[in-house]
What does this fold into?
Amino acid sequence: MYKIQDNILCWCGSPEEEAISQAKNVAKHPWLVGNFCLMPDAHAGYGMPIGGVAALDGAISPNMVGVDIGCGMLAVKTSLTDISTEQLKKILGGSAENKGGIRANIPVGFNHHSKKQEDELFDDDIWNDTVICLQEKDSAQKQIGTLGGGNHFIEIQRGDDGHIWFMIHSGSRNLGYKVANHYNNIAKELCTLWTQDEIVKNDLAILPVDTEEGQMYLCEMDLCLRFAFANRRHMANIIQNEFLRVIPDCNFVETINIHHNYAALENHYGRNVWVHRKGATLARKGIVGIIPGSQGTSSYIVEGKDNRASLCS
It folds into this structure.
């Protein structure tokens, strides 16, 4: 860890210039408490760098959470210590020789299920307390259990523990995107009225949490987090069924499901603050997390060390 400036702590070896420029914008944010932290894989995002962690006093910033609210990782360890190429092809499917499989059952990109999917989340009355989520509920019922595009992925991997794992990187799909954009626009309008022109220009507009707009965003963000968690769980169930179709005696012995785009009320610097983790995960002592690699590189299962300098991230 080293300092880029007095209130920017960096765990990234050589962050790109745009990410440093964005970090400096966050570092002078009027609602920032303490240090802004750059995690090892930090890179430029909208307003705040991805891989950035910031604590705000009494305010929440939609762009500091990110447009894919609740984006995160799920990893499942299987009982298998070996898997053949032929078994992999059957599990993955999507070819003339191996129909069905993961590729046929989990829509990717802009695709979604043709029918509404069932989940107890959709029975919760919290939908009626929202504006954007309620508008998008019908679409969300077809999008749950879908991967999305960009850097989202499903991988079947061999761990250094000798076991076969599968891993999913996905988020809240269009639901989170719509919520993020709606409330970021409101934040920009309000901050313009309050002559907070610099944070608007830097795409770091905020909503005070004690306002109606701030409370509405928190409610909708929480629902998006729950949707993203359930979305990964739905895909995991599909993948497990495909494993069992091909290898009936396979067992699933460990599951990790975490967010890396969210905000939460935590105690740091001797006060309660809203910690925004954008492309970063909670790393309190004993908390198990996942650091995904790029395609073709290793991913890591990690355990938190409760590093207060990084806001336990």
